[in-house]
UniProtKB/TrEMBL annotation:
Species of the source: Flavobacterium seoulense
Protein name: Uncharacterized protein
Lineage: Bacteria, Pseudomonadati, Bacteroidota, Flavobacteriia, Flavobacteriales
Highest taxon listed in the record's lineage: Bacteria
Length: 198
């Protein structure tokens, strides 16, 4: 009888452990292909979502193609794309949301839409990691002012501009600064809205 009870306890524990190990990011949102490491093989970036979680977070994964036709996981981030519902499904809705991922000339761009604008993070594979090399932001305040940021993290040049649109009229502003960030942030560490520079 003791052996049967121990077996049942073991099986329940094993089932619980197995469920805990399952990846909750089961819904594929997008997949893009392109050469990211200059080996003339089509690498891939996949974004998946955990739709059971109250916040519906995303996971971005980057895979390098291997000569044998298989793919090797190189980088994973559950931070670079803000959750669909930051305050939960019944929380405050901002109108912001993940747009897409693109690959252009070996650079992975993660694009996020805002209620009145958008922003983009650009990553390149260098120094053994996908490092943040660019950030851009364009948005309206809804009251006649358009703001933009263009930050080239490779050179450190960060340009901020504001200009009027609509009926309001004021002198545009332009600020150019050199801000060197070293080492460059890695894709797994970058989180939107958590840093005032990018």
């Amino acid at each position: 009888m003791k052996k049967i009870i121990l077996l049942i306890v073991f099986l329940i524990g094993f089932e619980t452990y197995s469920q805990a190990k399952k990846d909750p990011f089961t819904v594929e949102v997008t997949k893009v292909m392109g050469d990211l490491n200059k080996d003339n093989l089509e690498d891939k970036v996949i974004v998946t979502q955990d739709t059971v979680n109250e916040k519906s977070p995303y996971k971005l994964q980057i895979f390098f193609a291997q000569p044998n036709g298989k793919f090797k996981l190189i980088a994973t981030s559950t931070k670079i794309i803000a959750p669909q519902y930051p305050d939960g499904r019944d929380g405050y809705r901002t109108g912001d949301g993940f747009m897409d991922v693109t690959i252009t000339k070996g650079v992975v761009s993660v694009n996020f839409g805002l209620l009145r604008g958008h922003f983009e993070h650009k990553f390149r594979f260098q120094n053994g990691n996908f490092e943040l090399i660019g950030f851009s932001y364009v948005a309206s305040d809804g009251h006649g002012t358009m703001s933009s940021i263009d930050f080239n993290l490779s050179t450190g040049i960060r340009i901020e501009k504001t200009e009027a649109y609509g009926e309001d009229d004021f002198a545009p502003t332009y600020t150019k600064k050199k801000i060197l960030i070293r080492p460059l942030p890695k894709i797994q560490d970058v989180e939107p809205f958590e840093n005032e520079l990018y």
